[in-house]
Amino acid sequence: MTIIAVFNQKGGVGKTTVTAHLAATLARNGTEPLVIDLDPQAHLTALWGLRPRPEETVLRFYQGLAPLTELARPLPCGVQFIPSHLELSKVDTQVIRHRDHVWRLKLGLAAEMLSGNGVPILIDCSPTLGPLAFSALFAADLVLVPVAADYLALNGAALLERTLAGLTRFCGRLPRRYLLNRYVSGQVTAEKVLGQLAQRYGAELLRARIHEQEVLGAAAATGEDIFSFAPESRAAADFAFLLDELAEQRLLRW
Ligand SMILES: Nc1ncnc2c1ncn2[C@@H]1O[C@H](COP(=O)(O)OP(=O)(O)O)[C@@H](O)[C@H]1O
Ligand SMILES: [Mg+2]
Q: Percent of the chain having pLDDT more than 90?
């Protein structure tokens, strides 16, 4: 499996943070992943210090005007990156005229031989449930769901379960893994959320957890990945553990 959609309909749970640092972890481990910012809010694009014009972004691919390979650019952190732009939100509003948008990414990745070639692909999804998010889910081998350890986490997870269940008739049951983010060991809410996630999702809840760590935000503000910014931090260890677990479960190969 190589295509991972980092998805949760809830905003602020860590989709962009997890995508950025998991990609950097892969790069540290000797591969050059392809990362696609599929959120019109373009947080990942901004995080990595880019301010592209709309025609330099994934929007152009959805308009049918450029292949993905033409839009990918190498970044200093060792990833190939396709940025996003606010205008990408147009794709979500043109659903009636462009029903084929939902399959476009899967077909594009296959046609350009980007899927199945052993290079991992990470997609940072928008929380909006429109053609963009569906196109990421339809293309994905695995849905990685960050869940923030707060008191509304389980509501968000239940909503997401319903969404994924609705997709089953189009693409079968998508393999998924839940990743607890912003975890504070011993904190009552965090432990409660952890317990309930474990009960509800069993083996689909990853053993890896991303702890609440200010350094993740601080690294983001400098545009650096966690391994350059704070190599000895717990955050760096958390992401290394996450990658090991995904590899061990054969959910990610490179
Ligand atoms: N483990 C963490 N520790 C501390 N801050 C975090 C952590 N995960 C995410 N954040 C912060 O929470 C905010 C929302 O995270 P983000 O990745 O943008 O979520 P999403 O993409 O799901 O909307 C950001 O400011 C980010 O820096
Ligand atoms: Mg985001």
A: 75
